[in-house]
Design brief:
This protein is of the alpha/beta class and 255 residues long. Helices cover 44% and strands 20% of the residues. Strands 1, 4, 5, 6, 7, 8, 9 and 10 form an 8-stranded mixed sheet that branches. A two-stranded antiparallel sheet has the order 2-3. Helix 3 links the parallel strand 4 and strand 5. Helix 4 packs antiparallel against helix 7. The longest helix is centred in the last third of the chain and has 19 residues. It starts with a strand and ends with a helix.
Length: 255
């Protein structure tokens, strides 16, 4: 059993295009197949055996929805990394982290991910290879990280296995602060790894492990078996796509 999970469902401010397209106050409350995204995420976590699900949100509507789902509301901090740091402080480790827009989340993705995390890892992240995504979700537009071992996309699933993972969150906060100064982010790799990356010889696993060592922790990646795990809802087009995929799944299950 996974002791606790955090669902990041805060607002970045302004009008969210997904919420506007769905006609709701908050993105996490957009409906797919008669259930909100937040409900689908929380229910998938409970089905995966998570003992306590917490939802980080400021919107009173989302907080009320979380409580109805049996989740524990937590306040947000400026940025997702700071909100995660607060949750780790309050809930302790191990802590699974995902997002409120992970509308297609399935319990087996969660259990398979946690089972595959190396025993010595302080923190792990689930990623999917491009070929797995294109096989599972042809036509889905994702952002890819290009490394020597392939093109990868994040799956919005992180596992903070030990309290030492807090050091990696602090590095995440630094990256958030430098998001408009990408040269500072790249500089964290150091000249040796940067040259390997430019030469096309740096694997993603090596890069993540190096960043973990810089933070003083053991960091690892886990490859998703199902490329659909990398599909979340960032745009109104993503929402339409997720609705269509859920309708296809429901039809297949009825057949």
């Amino acid at each position: 059993m996974i002791p606790a999970a955090l669902v990041l469902a805060g607002s970045r401010g302004g009008i969210d295009p997904v919420a506007a397209a769905a006609g709701v106050s908050d993105k996490a409350l957009a409906e797919l197949g008669g259930r909100t995204m937040l409900a689908r995420v929380v229910e998938a976590l409970h089905a995966a055996g998570v003992a306590q699900v917490a939802v980080s949100a400021t919107s009173p509507t989302v907080v009320a929805a979380a409580e109805r789902l049996g989740a524990t509301p937590l306040p947000t901090e400026p940025g997702p990394s700071a909100s995660t740091a607060l949750a780790l402080e309050r809930l302790g480790a191990p802590l699974l982290v995902t997002t409120g827009d992970h509308a297609l989340l399935r319990p087996e993705w969660v259990t398979d991910f946690v089972a595959a995390v190396p025993a010595d890892a302080d923190v792990a992240v689930l990623l999917a290879r491009r070929e797995a995504i294109e096989r599972a979700a042809p036509g889905s537009r994702r952002t890819y990280l290009r490394f020597a071992d392939g093109h990868w996309s994040g799956c919005n699933l992180f596992y903070l296995a030990t309290p030492q993972a807090a050091a990696m969150i602090r590095l995440w906060q630094e990256v958030e602060r430098d998001r408009k100064r990408p040269w500072r982010i790249v500089r964290r790799l150091g000249p040796g790894l940067l040259l390997r990356y430019l030469a096309g010889r740096l694997t993603l696993a090596a890069a993540v492990a190096h960043l973990g060592r810089r933070a003083g922790v053991t960091a690892a990646i886990v490859a998703a078996a199902d490329g659909l795990a990398a599909v979340d809802v960032d745009t109104p087009a993503d929402l339409d796509d997720a609705r269509a995929r859920l309708a296809q799944r429901a039809a297949a299950e009825r057949a």
